[in-house]
Amino acid sequence: MKSDFQISNECEKKHIADVAAKLGINSEDLILYGNHKAKIQTKNIKKDIREDANLVLVTSINPTSSGEGKSTVTIGLSDALNRIGKKSCVALREPSLGPVLGRKGGAAGGGYAQVVPMEDINLHFTGDMHAITTAHNAIAVLVNNHVFQGNELEIDKIVFNRVMDMNARDLRHIKINAGTDLERNDGFDITVASEIMAILCLSESLGDLKEKLKNILVAYNKKGEPVYVKDLKIEGVITSLLKDAIKPNIVQTLENNPAIIHGGPFANIAHGCNSILATKTALKFADYVITEAGFGADLGAEKFLDIKCRKSGLKPKAAVVVATVKALKLHGDIEEKDLKEENLEALAKGVQNLEKHIENLRKFNLPIVVALNVFVTDTEKELAFLEEWAREQGVEFSRTEVWEKGGLGGIDLAEKVVKAVENNDKELQLLYKDEESIVDKINTVCCEIYGADGVNYSDEVLKEIERIESLGFKNLPVCMAKTPVSLTDNAKIKGRPTGFKITINDVKLRSGAGFVVAYANKVLTMPGLPKNPSALNIDIDEETETILGIF
Ligand code: ADP
Question: Binding of ATP: at which residues (predicted)?
Protein backbone atom coordinates (compact mmCIF):
# COMPACT_ATOMS: atom_id res chain seq x y z
CA MET A 1 0.00 0.00 0.00
CA LYS A 2 1.24 3.45 -0.89
CA SER A 3 1.75 6.10 1.80
CA ASP A 4 -0.90 8.78 2.28
CA PHE A 5 1.46 11.30 0.72
CA GLN A 6 2.22 9.15 -2.35
CA ILE A 7 -1.52 8.75 -2.94
CA SER A 8 -2.26 12.44 -2.48
CA ASN A 9 0.68 13.38 -4.70
CA GLU A 10 -0.73 11.30 -7.55
CA CYS A 11 -4.11 13.05 -7.38
CA GLU A 12 -5.02 15.12 -10.42
CA LYS A 13 -6.26 18.17 -8.64
CA LYS A 14 -8.78 20.49 -10.25
CA HIS A 15 -8.50 24.27 -10.01
CA ILE A 16 -10.22 25.26 -6.78
CA ALA A 17 -12.56 27.64 -8.63
CA ASP A 18 -13.90 24.63 -10.59
CA VAL A 19 -14.39 22.65 -7.37
CA ALA A 20 -16.22 25.58 -5.75
CA ALA A 21 -18.33 25.95 -8.90
CA LYS A 22 -19.56 22.36 -8.37
CA LEU A 23 -21.16 23.67 -5.17
CA GLY A 24 -22.42 26.81 -6.87
CA ILE A 25 -19.97 29.21 -5.23
CA ASN A 26 -19.03 32.06 -7.58
CA SER A 27 -15.37 32.75 -8.26
CA GLU A 28 -15.92 36.38 -7.09
CA ASP A 29 -16.62 34.95 -3.65
CA LEU A 30 -13.26 33.18 -3.53
CA ILE A 31 -9.96 34.56 -2.27
CA LEU A 32 -7.39 32.36 -4.00
CA TYR A 33 -4.30 30.99 -2.26
CA GLY A 34 -2.69 29.54 -5.40
CA ASN A 35 -4.60 27.07 -7.58
CA HIS A 36 -5.79 24.56 -5.02
CA LYS A 37 -6.77 26.47 -1.88
CA ALA A 38 -9.13 29.39 -1.39
CA LYS A 39 -10.99 31.24 1.28
CA ILE A 40 -14.71 31.82 0.85
CA GLN A 41 -15.98 35.36 1.24
CA THR A 42 -19.04 34.63 3.40
CA LYS A 43 -20.16 38.24 3.81
CA ASN A 44 -22.66 37.92 0.98
CA ILE A 45 -23.92 34.48 1.92
CA LYS A 46 -27.22 34.47 3.78
CA LYS A 47 -26.95 32.87 7.22
CA ASP A 48 -30.35 31.17 7.43
CA ILE A 49 -30.21 27.38 7.51
CA ARG A 50 -31.68 25.49 4.53
CA GLU A 51 -34.21 23.10 6.04
CA ASP A 52 -33.88 20.66 3.14
CA ALA A 53 -30.08 20.32 3.49
CA ASN A 54 -28.90 17.38 5.55
CA LEU A 55 -26.18 17.60 8.18
CA VAL A 56 -24.59 14.30 9.20
CA LEU A 57 -22.24 13.99 12.16
CA VAL A 58 -19.37 11.51 12.10
CA THR A 59 -18.16 10.44 15.53
CA SER A 60 -16.55 7.35 17.04
CA ILE A 61 -16.01 4.99 19.94
CA ASN A 62 -13.29 5.91 22.47
CA PRO A 63 -10.31 5.83 20.13
CA THR A 64 -6.78 4.51 20.45
CA SER A 65 -4.02 7.12 20.38
CA SER A 66 -3.62 6.73 16.60
CA GLY A 67 -7.29 7.52 15.79
CA GLU A 68 -9.96 5.21 14.36
CA GLY A 69 -10.39 6.80 10.96
CA LYS A 70 -13.10 9.42 11.59
CA SER A 71 -11.63 11.95 9.16
CA THR A 72 -10.98 9.17 6.66
CA VAL A 73 -14.59 7.93 6.88
CA THR A 74 -16.00 11.48 6.78
CA ILE A 75 -14.18 12.21 3.53
CA GLY A 76 -14.89 8.77 2.04
CA LEU A 77 -18.59 9.02 2.92
CA SER A 78 -18.88 12.37 1.17
CA ASP A 79 -17.15 11.01 -1.93
CA ALA A 80 -19.50 8.00 -1.84
CA LEU A 81 -22.56 10.27 -1.56
CA ASN A 82 -21.35 12.21 -4.60
CA ARG A 83 -20.94 8.90 -6.43
CA ILE A 84 -24.58 7.96 -5.75
CA GLY A 85 -25.72 11.31 -7.11
CA LYS A 86 -26.06 13.39 -3.94
CA LYS A 87 -24.51 16.84 -3.80
CA SER A 88 -22.24 16.41 -0.79
CA CYS A 89 -19.50 18.43 0.90
CA VAL A 90 -17.37 17.75 3.98
CA ALA A 91 -16.86 20.26 6.79
CA LEU A 92 -13.69 19.43 8.72
CA ARG A 93 -11.31 20.92 11.27
CA GLU A 94 -7.87 22.26 10.38
CA PRO A 95 -4.89 20.24 11.61
CA SER A 96 -2.69 21.56 14.40
CA LEU A 97 1.09 21.35 14.15
CA GLY A 98 1.07 19.69 17.59
CA PRO A 99 -0.03 16.25 16.33
CA VAL A 100 1.45 16.77 12.83
CA LEU A 101 4.96 17.18 14.26
CA GLY A 102 4.19 14.86 17.18
CA ARG A 103 2.70 11.43 17.06
CA LYS A 104 -0.79 11.14 15.69
CA GLY A 105 -0.34 12.53 12.23
CA GLY A 106 -2.47 15.00 10.33
CA ALA A 107 -6.16 15.49 9.97
CA ALA A 108 -6.52 15.23 6.22
CA GLY A 109 -7.84 11.63 6.11
CA GLY A 110 -5.87 8.65 4.89
CA GLY A 111 -5.43 6.12 2.07
CA TYR A 112 -7.84 6.86 -0.80
CA ALA A 113 -10.04 9.10 1.34
CA GLN A 114 -8.07 12.30 1.76
CA VAL A 115 -8.33 16.02 1.24
CA VAL A 116 -5.63 17.68 -0.85
CA PRO A 117 -3.14 19.34 -0.98
CA MET A 118 -2.57 17.35 2.24
CA GLU A 119 0.95 18.67 2.89
CA ASP A 120 -0.27 22.28 2.77
CA ILE A 121 -3.36 21.53 4.85
CA ASN A 122 -1.20 19.80 7.47
CA LEU A 123 1.62 22.36 7.59
CA HIS A 124 0.52 26.00 7.37
CA PHE A 125 -2.60 25.89 5.19
CA THR A 126 -3.88 29.46 4.84
CA GLY A 127 -2.32 30.71 8.07
CA ASP A 128 -5.42 30.59 10.30
CA MET A 129 -3.56 28.93 13.20
CA HIS A 130 -0.90 31.62 13.10
CA ALA A 131 -3.49 34.41 13.06
CA ILE A 132 -5.29 32.85 16.05
CA THR A 133 -1.98 32.41 17.92
CA THR A 134 -1.07 36.04 17.23
CA ALA A 135 -4.47 37.38 18.23
CA HIS A 136 -4.35 35.42 21.49
CA ASN A 137 -0.83 36.55 22.33
CA ALA A 138 -1.67 40.15 21.42
CA ILE A 139 -4.29 40.15 24.19
CA ALA A 140 -1.72 38.75 26.64
CA VAL A 141 0.85 41.38 25.64
CA LEU A 142 -1.66 44.24 25.80
CA VAL A 143 -3.04 43.34 29.22
CA ASN A 144 0.47 42.92 30.65
CA ASN A 145 1.48 46.24 29.11
CA HIS A 146 -1.55 47.88 30.71
CA VAL A 147 -0.32 46.76 34.13
CA PHE A 148 3.25 47.92 33.40
CA GLN A 149 2.10 51.33 32.15
CA GLY A 150 0.35 52.44 35.35
CA ASN A 151 -2.48 49.91 35.66
CA GLU A 152 -5.41 52.30 35.38
CA LEU A 153 -7.86 49.40 35.67
CA GLU A 154 -6.21 48.31 38.94
CA ILE A 155 -5.67 44.80 37.68
CA ASP A 156 -4.69 42.44 40.46
CA LYS A 157 -4.67 39.02 38.80
CA ILE A 158 -4.29 38.26 35.09
CA VAL A 159 -6.08 35.05 34.07
CA PHE A 160 -5.21 35.12 30.36
CA ASN A 161 -2.15 33.05 29.38
CA ARG A 162 -0.25 32.55 26.08
CA VAL A 163 -0.52 30.00 23.26
CA MET A 164 1.66 28.30 20.67
CA ASP A 165 0.60 25.78 18.00
CA MET A 166 3.15 23.16 18.97
CA ASN A 167 3.67 20.52 21.64
CA ALA A 168 5.91 22.76 23.77
CA ARG A 169 6.13 20.87 27.05
CA ASP A 170 8.82 23.26 28.30
CA LEU A 171 6.47 26.25 28.09
CA ARG A 172 3.64 24.81 30.22
CA HIS A 173 4.81 26.79 33.25
CA ILE A 174 6.99 29.87 32.91
CA LYS A 175 8.00 32.84 35.01
CA ILE A 176 7.63 36.27 33.42
CA ASN A 177 9.14 39.64 34.34
CA ALA A 178 11.84 37.65 36.12
CA GLY A 179 13.72 39.68 38.72
CA THR A 180 11.25 42.62 38.69
CA ASP A 181 8.38 43.70 40.94
CA LEU A 182 5.98 42.24 38.36
CA GLU A 183 7.46 38.72 38.46
CA ARG A 184 4.71 36.09 38.27
CA ASN A 185 3.87 32.65 36.94
CA ASP A 186 2.44 32.35 33.46
CA GLY A 187 2.23 29.56 30.89
CA PHE A 188 1.31 28.39 27.43
CA ASP A 189 -1.54 26.26 26.11
CA ILE A 190 -1.56 24.81 22.61
CA THR A 191 -3.38 27.16 20.18
CA VAL A 192 -6.22 24.70 19.61
CA ALA A 193 -7.20 25.17 23.28
CA SER A 194 -7.25 28.98 22.95
CA GLU A 195 -10.51 30.77 23.64
CA ILE A 196 -9.89 32.70 20.42
CA MET A 197 -10.02 29.40 18.49
CA ALA A 198 -13.35 28.57 20.13
CA ILE A 199 -14.69 32.07 19.44
CA LEU A 200 -13.65 31.94 15.79
CA CYS A 201 -15.44 28.61 15.47
CA LEU A 202 -18.62 29.83 17.19
CA SER A 203 -18.93 33.20 15.39
CA GLU A 204 -21.39 33.76 12.57
CA SER A 205 -19.88 36.99 11.18
CA LEU A 206 -17.08 39.49 11.73
CA GLY A 207 -19.44 41.59 13.87
CA ASP A 208 -20.35 38.57 15.99
CA LEU A 209 -16.64 37.75 16.33
CA LYS A 210 -15.92 41.25 17.64
CA GLU A 211 -18.80 41.04 20.11
CA LYS A 212 -17.55 37.71 21.47
CA LEU A 213 -13.92 38.91 21.68
CA LYS A 214 -15.09 41.90 23.76
CA ASN A 215 -16.40 39.53 26.43
CA ILE A 216 -13.23 37.52 27.04
CA LEU A 217 -12.32 37.57 30.72
CA VAL A 218 -8.66 38.61 31.04
CA ALA A 219 -8.18 39.54 34.69
CA TYR A 220 -9.70 40.43 38.06
CA ASN A 221 -9.14 43.87 39.61
CA LYS A 222 -8.21 44.67 43.20
CA LYS A 223 -11.88 44.55 44.22
CA GLY A 224 -12.20 41.06 42.72
CA GLU A 225 -14.30 42.36 39.81
CA PRO A 226 -13.84 40.91 36.32
CA VAL A 227 -11.86 42.78 33.64
CA TYR A 228 -12.84 41.97 30.07
CA VAL A 229 -11.21 42.66 26.68
CA LYS A 230 -13.74 45.49 26.20
CA ASP A 231 -12.40 47.25 29.34
CA LEU A 232 -8.98 47.37 27.65
CA LYS A 233 -10.64 48.63 24.42
CA ILE A 234 -8.64 46.24 22.28
CA GLU A 235 -11.41 44.31 20.50
CA GLY A 236 -10.82 46.39 17.35
CA VAL A 237 -7.22 45.33 16.89
CA ILE A 238 -7.87 41.71 17.84
CA THR A 239 -10.74 41.46 15.34
CA SER A 240 -8.51 43.05 12.69
CA LEU A 241 -5.89 40.35 13.23
CA LEU A 242 -8.58 37.74 12.49
CA LYS A 243 -10.09 39.41 9.40
CA ASP A 244 -9.03 36.62 7.02
CA ALA A 245 -8.84 33.75 9.51
CA ILE A 246 -12.61 33.91 10.02
CA LYS A 247 -13.27 33.07 6.36
CA PRO A 248 -13.73 29.32 5.73
CA ASN A 249 -11.19 27.52 3.51
CA ILE A 250 -12.16 25.35 0.56
CA VAL A 251 -10.07 22.51 -0.88
CA GLN A 252 -10.96 19.21 -2.58
CA THR A 253 -11.03 15.48 -1.87
CA LEU A 254 -8.96 13.01 -3.93
CA GLU A 255 -12.15 12.57 -6.02
CA ASN A 256 -12.31 16.33 -6.69
CA ASN A 257 -15.32 16.94 -4.47
CA PRO A 258 -15.49 20.08 -2.31
CA ALA A 259 -14.20 20.11 1.26
CA ILE A 260 -14.57 23.08 3.58
CA ILE A 261 -11.97 23.05 6.34
CA HIS A 262 -12.02 25.69 9.02
CA GLY A 263 -11.08 26.07 12.67
CA GLY A 264 -9.62 23.28 14.74
CA PRO A 265 -10.26 23.16 18.48
CA PHE A 266 -9.16 19.85 20.05
CA ALA A 267 -12.01 17.79 21.47
CA ASN A 268 -10.31 16.71 24.71
CA ILE A 269 -9.46 20.23 25.94
CA ALA A 270 -11.79 22.39 23.82
CA HIS A 271 -15.15 21.96 22.03
CA GLY A 272 -13.77 19.93 19.13
CA CYS A 273 -15.74 21.08 16.07
CA ASN A 274 -15.00 23.01 12.88
CA SER A 275 -16.48 26.52 12.58
CA ILE A 276 -20.19 27.27 12.45
CA LEU A 277 -19.47 29.45 9.42
CA ALA A 278 -17.90 26.48 7.59
CA THR A 279 -20.81 24.16 8.38
CA LYS A 280 -23.47 26.75 7.51
CA THR A 281 -21.69 27.72 4.29
CA ALA A 282 -21.50 24.07 3.26
CA LEU A 283 -25.20 23.60 4.10
CA LYS A 284 -26.08 26.60 1.97
CA PHE A 285 -24.69 24.96 -1.14
CA ALA A 286 -24.68 21.18 -0.64
CA ASP A 287 -27.60 18.82 0.01
CA TYR A 288 -25.49 16.64 2.31
CA VAL A 289 -22.85 18.03 4.65
CA ILE A 290 -20.69 15.47 6.41
CA THR A 291 -18.95 16.88 9.44
CA GLU A 292 -16.74 15.37 12.12
CA ALA A 293 -16.36 16.12 15.81
CA GLY A 294 -13.10 15.15 17.49
CA PHE A 295 -12.27 12.00 19.44
CA GLY A 296 -15.11 9.74 20.70
CA ALA A 297 -18.80 10.53 20.99
CA ASP A 298 -18.43 11.15 24.76
CA LEU A 299 -16.35 14.25 23.98
CA GLY A 300 -16.73 15.41 20.36
CA ALA A 301 -20.35 14.50 19.69
CA GLU A 302 -21.61 15.65 23.09
CA LYS A 303 -19.98 19.06 22.64
CA PHE A 304 -20.98 19.28 18.97
CA LEU A 305 -24.59 18.87 20.08
CA ASP A 306 -24.63 20.66 23.43
CA ILE A 307 -22.39 23.58 22.43
CA LYS A 308 -22.21 24.04 18.65
CA CYS A 309 -25.77 22.99 17.78
CA ARG A 310 -27.23 24.71 20.86
CA LYS A 311 -25.60 28.02 19.88
CA SER A 312 -26.13 27.87 16.12
CA GLY A 313 -29.47 26.13 15.64
CA LEU A 314 -27.77 23.45 13.52
CA LYS A 315 -29.56 20.09 13.63
CA PRO A 316 -27.85 16.95 12.38
CA LYS A 317 -30.22 14.41 10.86
CA ALA A 318 -28.08 11.33 11.53
CA ALA A 319 -24.87 10.22 13.23
CA VAL A 320 -22.25 7.82 11.92
CA VAL A 321 -20.26 6.05 14.64
CA VAL A 322 -16.86 4.88 13.44
CA ALA A 323 -15.43 1.77 15.09
CA THR A 324 -12.49 -0.48 14.30
CA VAL A 325 -11.90 -4.10 15.19
CA LYS A 326 -8.53 -3.22 16.75
CA ALA A 327 -9.92 -0.54 19.06
CA LEU A 328 -12.86 -2.74 20.11
CA LYS A 329 -10.40 -5.53 20.94
CA LEU A 330 -8.35 -3.07 23.01
CA HIS A 331 -11.55 -2.19 24.89
CA GLY A 332 -11.82 -5.93 25.50
CA ASP A 333 -8.65 -5.66 27.57
CA ILE A 334 -6.03 -7.30 25.41
CA GLU A 335 -2.49 -6.04 24.95
CA GLU A 336 -1.51 -3.92 21.99
CA LYS A 337 1.03 -6.52 20.82
CA ASP A 338 -1.75 -9.16 20.48
CA LEU A 339 -4.05 -7.02 18.34
CA LYS A 340 -3.21 -8.75 15.08
CA GLU A 341 -4.52 -12.10 16.38
CA GLU A 342 -8.17 -12.92 15.81
CA ASN A 343 -9.91 -12.68 19.20
CA LEU A 344 -13.69 -12.91 19.29
CA GLU A 345 -13.75 -13.01 23.07
CA ALA A 346 -12.01 -9.66 23.35
CA LEU A 347 -14.30 -8.28 20.65
CA ALA A 348 -17.42 -9.45 22.50
CA LYS A 349 -16.21 -7.66 25.63
CA GLY A 350 -14.93 -4.53 23.91
CA VAL A 351 -18.04 -3.98 21.82
CA GLN A 352 -19.72 -2.72 25.01
CA ASN A 353 -17.88 0.54 24.45
CA LEU A 354 -19.66 0.93 21.11
CA GLU A 355 -22.94 -0.05 22.76
CA LYS A 356 -22.63 2.81 25.28
CA HIS A 357 -21.98 5.39 22.55
CA ILE A 358 -24.99 4.16 20.58
CA GLU A 359 -27.18 4.44 23.69
CA ASN A 360 -25.85 7.96 24.29
CA LEU A 361 -26.54 9.20 20.78
CA ARG A 362 -30.06 7.81 20.95
CA LYS A 363 -30.64 10.14 23.93
CA PHE A 364 -30.24 13.03 21.45
CA ASN A 365 -32.84 11.39 19.17
CA LEU A 366 -30.28 10.76 16.44
CA PRO A 367 -30.59 7.82 14.03
CA ILE A 368 -27.28 5.94 13.91
CA VAL A 369 -25.25 4.04 11.36
CA VAL A 370 -22.15 2.20 12.60
CA ALA A 371 -19.28 2.50 10.11
CA LEU A 372 -16.88 -0.36 10.74
CA ASN A 373 -13.65 1.04 9.28
CA VAL A 374 -12.16 -2.14 7.84
CA PHE A 375 -8.41 -2.79 8.19
CA VAL A 376 -6.77 -5.41 5.98
CA THR A 377 -5.80 -7.31 9.16
CA ASP A 378 -9.45 -7.77 10.28
CA THR A 379 -10.66 -11.35 9.88
CA GLU A 380 -13.97 -12.36 8.27
CA LYS A 381 -15.08 -13.98 11.54
CA GLU A 382 -14.48 -10.73 13.46
CA LEU A 383 -16.40 -8.67 10.90
CA ALA A 384 -19.27 -11.16 10.79
CA PHE A 385 -19.44 -11.19 14.60
CA LEU A 386 -19.87 -7.40 14.68
CA GLU A 387 -22.44 -7.50 11.89
CA GLU A 388 -24.50 -10.01 13.86
CA TRP A 389 -24.09 -7.97 17.05
CA ALA A 390 -25.42 -4.87 15.27
CA ARG A 391 -28.40 -6.81 13.94
CA GLU A 392 -29.25 -7.92 17.47
CA GLN A 393 -28.96 -4.33 18.70
CA GLY A 394 -31.19 -3.07 15.90
CA VAL A 395 -28.58 -0.64 14.63
CA GLU A 396 -27.58 -0.07 10.99
CA PHE A 397 -24.08 -1.33 10.26
CA SER A 398 -21.78 -0.92 7.28
CA ARG A 399 -18.39 -2.39 6.45
CA THR A 400 -16.57 0.70 5.23
CA GLU A 401 -13.55 0.41 2.99
CA VAL A 402 -12.97 4.01 1.96
CA TRP A 403 -9.32 3.96 3.10
CA GLU A 404 -8.60 1.22 0.56
CA LYS A 405 -11.08 2.09 -2.20
CA GLY A 406 -12.08 5.74 -1.81
CA GLY A 407 -15.75 6.63 -2.34
CA LEU A 408 -16.38 3.24 -3.93
CA GLY A 409 -15.68 1.61 -0.55
CA GLY A 410 -18.37 3.73 1.10
CA ILE A 411 -21.38 3.21 -1.18
CA ASP A 412 -23.16 0.90 1.26
CA LEU A 413 -22.53 3.39 4.08
CA ALA A 414 -23.77 6.28 1.92
CA GLU A 415 -26.98 4.43 1.07
CA LYS A 416 -27.62 3.60 4.72
CA VAL A 417 -26.96 7.21 5.75
CA VAL A 418 -29.41 8.52 3.13
CA LYS A 419 -32.03 6.06 4.40
CA ALA A 420 -31.42 7.11 8.03
CA VAL A 421 -31.73 10.79 7.13
CA GLU A 422 -34.84 10.32 5.00
CA ASN A 423 -36.61 8.23 7.66
CA ASN A 424 -35.71 10.54 10.53
CA ASP A 425 -38.87 12.20 11.83
CA LYS A 426 -37.57 13.00 15.33
CA GLU A 427 -36.61 16.39 16.80
CA LEU A 428 -33.04 16.77 18.02
CA GLN A 429 -32.98 16.64 21.82
CA LEU A 430 -30.18 18.38 23.74
CA LEU A 431 -28.90 16.83 26.96
CA TYR A 432 -29.60 19.66 29.42
CA LYS A 433 -31.39 22.99 29.61
CA ASP A 434 -29.65 26.40 29.66
CA GLU A 435 -31.29 27.27 33.00
CA GLU A 436 -29.79 24.33 34.90
CA SER A 437 -26.90 25.12 37.25
CA ILE A 438 -23.30 24.54 36.12
CA VAL A 439 -22.95 21.67 38.62
CA ASP A 440 -26.14 20.02 37.34
CA LYS A 441 -24.91 20.28 33.76
CA ILE A 442 -21.53 18.72 34.62
CA ASN A 443 -23.27 15.96 36.61
CA THR A 444 -25.62 15.22 33.71
CA VAL A 445 -22.77 14.82 31.20
CA CYS A 446 -20.71 12.66 33.60
CA CYS A 447 -23.58 10.38 34.62
CA GLU A 448 -25.64 10.21 31.40
CA ILE A 449 -22.81 10.15 28.86
CA TYR A 450 -19.77 8.72 30.64
CA GLY A 451 -21.82 6.37 32.84
CA ALA A 452 -20.40 7.66 36.14
CA ASP A 453 -22.13 7.19 39.51
CA GLY A 454 -21.30 10.70 40.63
CA VAL A 455 -18.88 13.62 40.45
CA ASN A 456 -16.27 14.80 42.98
CA TYR A 457 -15.66 18.55 43.34
CA SER A 458 -13.13 20.21 45.62
CA ASP A 459 -14.28 23.21 47.72
CA GLU A 460 -12.07 25.40 45.54
CA VAL A 461 -13.81 24.26 42.35
CA LEU A 462 -17.25 24.76 43.89
CA LYS A 463 -16.23 28.28 44.97
CA GLU A 464 -15.09 29.11 41.43
CA ILE A 465 -18.38 27.78 40.00
CA GLU A 466 -20.22 30.01 42.50
CA ARG A 467 -18.19 33.01 41.34
CA ILE A 468 -18.89 32.22 37.65
CA GLU A 469 -22.62 31.94 38.36
CA SER A 470 -22.63 35.16 40.42
CA LEU A 471 -21.04 37.00 37.47
CA GLY A 472 -24.15 36.09 35.45
CA PHE A 473 -22.89 33.08 33.50
CA LYS A 474 -25.04 30.33 35.00
CA ASN A 475 -26.83 29.70 31.71
CA LEU A 476 -23.72 28.79 29.71
CA PRO A 477 -23.18 25.23 28.49
CA VAL A 478 -20.24 23.23 29.88
CA CYS A 479 -17.24 22.22 27.80
CA MET A 480 -15.81 19.06 29.31
CA ALA A 481 -12.04 18.46 29.20
CA LYS A 482 -11.21 14.79 29.70
CA THR A 483 -9.03 11.97 28.43
CA PRO A 484 -10.37 10.78 25.06
CA VAL A 485 -9.34 7.15 25.38
CA SER A 486 -11.67 6.16 28.23
CA LEU A 487 -15.26 6.86 29.22
CA THR A 488 -13.82 7.61 32.68
CA ASP A 489 -11.25 10.28 33.61
CA ASN A 490 -8.56 7.60 33.79
CA ALA A 491 -6.91 6.72 30.45
CA LYS A 492 -6.12 3.19 31.60
CA ILE A 493 -9.75 2.10 32.06
CA LYS A 494 -11.20 0.67 28.84
CA GLY A 495 -14.49 -0.76 27.65
CA ARG A 496 -17.73 0.28 29.32
CA PRO A 497 -16.82 0.83 32.97
CA THR A 498 -19.35 1.15 35.77
CA GLY A 499 -19.13 2.13 39.44
CA PHE A 500 -16.77 5.08 38.98
CA LYS A 501 -16.79 8.78 39.77
CA ILE A 502 -15.42 11.71 37.77
CA THR A 503 -13.21 14.21 39.58
CA ILE A 504 -13.44 17.82 38.46
CA ASN A 505 -10.08 19.48 39.22
CA ASP A 506 -10.65 22.93 37.79
CA VAL A 507 -13.22 25.09 36.00
CA LYS A 508 -12.59 28.09 33.79
CA LEU A 509 -14.99 30.73 32.53
CA ARG A 510 -14.73 31.35 28.78
CA SER A 511 -17.16 34.25 28.67
CA GLY A 512 -16.20 35.23 25.11
CA ALA A 513 -16.79 31.78 23.64
CA GLY A 514 -19.79 31.35 25.92
CA PHE A 515 -19.01 28.18 27.87
CA VAL A 516 -17.48 26.99 31.12
CA VAL A 517 -14.62 24.50 30.77
CA ALA A 518 -14.65 21.72 33.38
CA TYR A 519 -11.40 19.77 33.68
CA ALA A 520 -11.81 16.11 34.63
CA ASN A 521 -8.80 14.74 36.47
CA LYS A 522 -5.40 15.71 34.96
CA VAL A 523 -5.76 16.95 31.40
CA LEU A 524 -2.85 18.69 29.75
CA THR A 525 -3.72 21.84 27.82
CA MET A 526 -0.19 21.86 26.38
CA PRO A 527 0.86 18.39 25.16
CA GLY A 528 4.47 17.17 24.89
CA LEU A 529 6.34 15.48 22.03
CA PRO A 530 7.15 11.75 22.04
CA LYS A 531 10.76 10.50 21.98
CA ASN A 532 10.67 9.99 18.20
CA PRO A 533 8.31 12.68 16.91
CA SER A 534 6.97 12.61 13.34
CA ALA A 535 8.90 15.87 12.84
CA LEU A 536 12.07 13.78 12.40
CA ASN A 537 10.62 12.14 9.26
CA ILE A 538 9.58 15.28 7.43
CA ASP A 539 11.88 16.73 4.75
CA ILE A 540 11.72 18.73 1.53
CA ASP A 541 13.22 18.15 -1.92
CA GLU A 542 14.90 21.47 -2.65
CA GLU A 543 14.62 21.08 -6.43
CA THR A 544 10.92 20.24 -6.70
CA GLU A 545 9.87 21.80 -3.36
CA THR A 546 8.06 18.53 -2.63
CA ILE A 547 7.43 17.80 1.05
CA LEU A 548 8.65 14.30 1.94
CA GLY A 549 7.89 11.90 4.77
CA ILE A 550 4.63 13.46 5.85
CA PHE A 551 2.63 10.28 6.69
P1 ADP B 1 -9.36 10.09 13.33
O2 ADP B 1 -10.03 11.14 12.52
O3 ADP B 1 -10.32 9.15 13.97
O4 ADP B 1 -8.37 10.62 14.30
P5 ADP B 1 -7.93 9.51 10.90
O6 ADP B 1 -8.98 9.43 9.85
O7 ADP B 1 -7.11 10.74 10.99
O8 ADP B 1 -8.53 9.16 12.33
O9 ADP B 1 -7.00 8.23 10.70
C10 ADP B 1 -5.89 7.99 11.55
C11 ADP B 1 -4.82 7.23 10.78
O12 ADP B 1 -5.27 5.90 10.49
C13 ADP B 1 -4.46 7.86 9.44
O14 ADP B 1 -3.07 7.81 9.29
C15 ADP B 1 -5.14 6.96 8.41
O16 ADP B 1 -4.41 6.90 7.21
C17 ADP B 1 -5.13 5.61 9.11
N18 ADP B 1 -6.27 4.77 8.70
C19 ADP B 1 -7.58 5.13 8.76
N20 ADP B 1 -8.36 4.11 8.32
C21 ADP B 1 -7.53 3.11 8.00
C22 ADP B 1 -7.73 1.77 7.48
N23 ADP B 1 -8.95 1.31 7.23
N24 ADP B 1 -6.64 1.00 7.26
C25 ADP B 1 -5.40 1.47 7.52
N26 ADP B 1 -5.13 2.71 8.01
C27 ADP B 1 -6.19 3.52 8.24
Answer: 64-71
